[in-house]
Amino acid sequence: MEINSLFPPSLATPDHIVLAEELGFKSAWIYDVPVSFADTGITLAAAAARTKSIRLGVSVFTPHLRHLTMNAALIAHLATIAPGRFDAAIGAGFSSAAYLARKPAKWAEIEEYVTALRTLLAGGEVDWEGAVVSLMHSPVTGITFPVEVPLWIAAHGPKGYATARRLGAGVITNTRHGHNPVPIDGLCALTFGGTVLDEGETYDSPRVIEAAGPNAAMALHLGEQGPLAGTDEARGYAQAIAAVDVRRQHLETHRGHLIDFNKLDRPFVTGEVIRRGSRSGTALEIATQLRRMEEAGATAVFYQPGGPDIPRELRAFREAAELRHQIPALPVPEPAADQEVQHA
């Protein structure tokens, strides 16, 4: 199982990707939410120029944020400057759609979108929104076709998994959104957010709250559909967001999403929210989680570090990941029914 990294991009992310390569992470992907994070293309271009072997990627491109040709052109450019080491994930969109007060794309749209992307990257033309479109880069630009890029589908339920199977694509998923740790055969990557606790450290310690809190806050946003269902914190957050002007709820819910606290999140991010809403734990506990994922069939884990000291988080997680090789084989739990939840 590959140990990979995943970042909500900031201006410091290229530095962190360089470190991830030095530490032995196989891939470094970033989120694509341009109204909230540093620019996707600029961040990965900077990282590509400073790295040699680590794979780079985006998770996820969605139909909402840019025209089909704009995403295809960005993929072509990044794949050209990082030859043989660029991946692109496509998803229905949760956060990215919510920022625009829109609903996630339907899976039929995603299937059509991926098919069109593949055609454009192969150098072909497609009928899109009433027009014939293509990528028309002259060889003088340095970008030539076809462009070969592995495509992944971000999915968290049976409809998304079925779409990935039909497209012959890998799946990247967040197991906190459903019950089955590995939903399909083949390439399946699991996201992993949290912090490695130091010896004697508790879930409610200031460092742990700062490092894991932004990721755990996502569980507050999921409410009764997430791992905090039925808790006082989830109910309190639901009441707080309900008090916001309905025209701004989509903004305030996702302000700082996955990278920082916002004023609505912070009062409800407790040690219990960290424990239940993230995958934080001791090095041995995290190693055990990773060993269980590996034995269940996961082909990769994407770790998202958080807080003010990203280098510390990367180093600690990489060390914990190595411990999994020292853990005896673990029984794989029986899977429960799938749960369909969208997330960008």
UniProtKB/TrEMBL annotation:
Presence of keyword Oxidoreductase: yes
Luciferase-like domain segment(s): 15-175
InterPro entries membership: F420-G6PD/mer (IPR050564), Luciferase-like_dom (IPR011251), Luciferase-like_sf (IPR036661)
Signal in keyword set: no
Alphabetized UniProt keyword annotations: Oxidoreductase
Record-linked Gene3D superfamilies: Luciferase-like domain
Pfam family for this entry, one: Bac_luciferase
Organism superkingdom: Bacteria
Single GO MF annotation: oxidoreductase activity, acting on paired donors, with incorporation or reduction of molecular oxygen
Listed name of the protein: LLM class flavin-dependent oxidoreductase
Native species: Streptomyces chartreusis
